[in-house]
Amino acid sequence: MSVTAAETPDVPCSPLADTVVERLTTVYTAAADPERAVAMRAYMRDVAPFLGLTSPVRRSLSRTVLEGLPRPGEADCAAVALRCWRLPEREYHYFAVDFLRRHVTHCSSGFLPVVRHLLTTVPWWDTVDLLAAHVVGGLVAADRDLTAEMDAWIADEDLWLVRAALLHQLRYKERTDTERLFGYCLRQSGHDDFFVRKAIGWCLRAYAGTDPDAVRAFVAEHGRRLAPLSVREALRTVGR
Fold this sequence. Notes:
single chain, 240 residues, mainly alpha, 13 helices, globular, disordered N terminus
């Protein structure tokens, strides 16, 4: 399943994915709300069309889709995610993200190229952030050799890979690699995109919940290199 960054992952053969996608498209389409879909698409800056399913409705329908199905393996996860990503409506992408969050522990480090594809295809914060914190973070926590990939992502020209690298430790708490956390923030401190500057502040703020003194000291020493937005976010809960 492993691929290079320039390749698009192949969709594995998966009877389970066949069943999931068939159920999913049937159930989601039947519940579509075209009027709400227009507003949702506008709110998400036209990143993708929507079916118009609210989050509570979508989650309830997803439980119906998955009822009685067996636990997926890695190939099933890849097939479900990649096939959902080929569907235009954003709710299918949300389903894939939720599916991977639930089953990432069944995936090996070889699954990371699939996630990279999801992060860089129809990218926006609504999918990138959850994939970064829950899926990428889970994979790296299980195989620390993947930190080399994070080192590559933080230097990538794709802002969403940069954001994912910054956010992948968001839930690590005491397990956070602080050298990488602070190093990544400094590496991209001059980035001109809002989503990267915001992510720098967010990952620092998250770690401040574990070690506020370390974050305050980091900002005190390097604050002039950080964007004001990053500093405000970093110190929002701990002050100076």
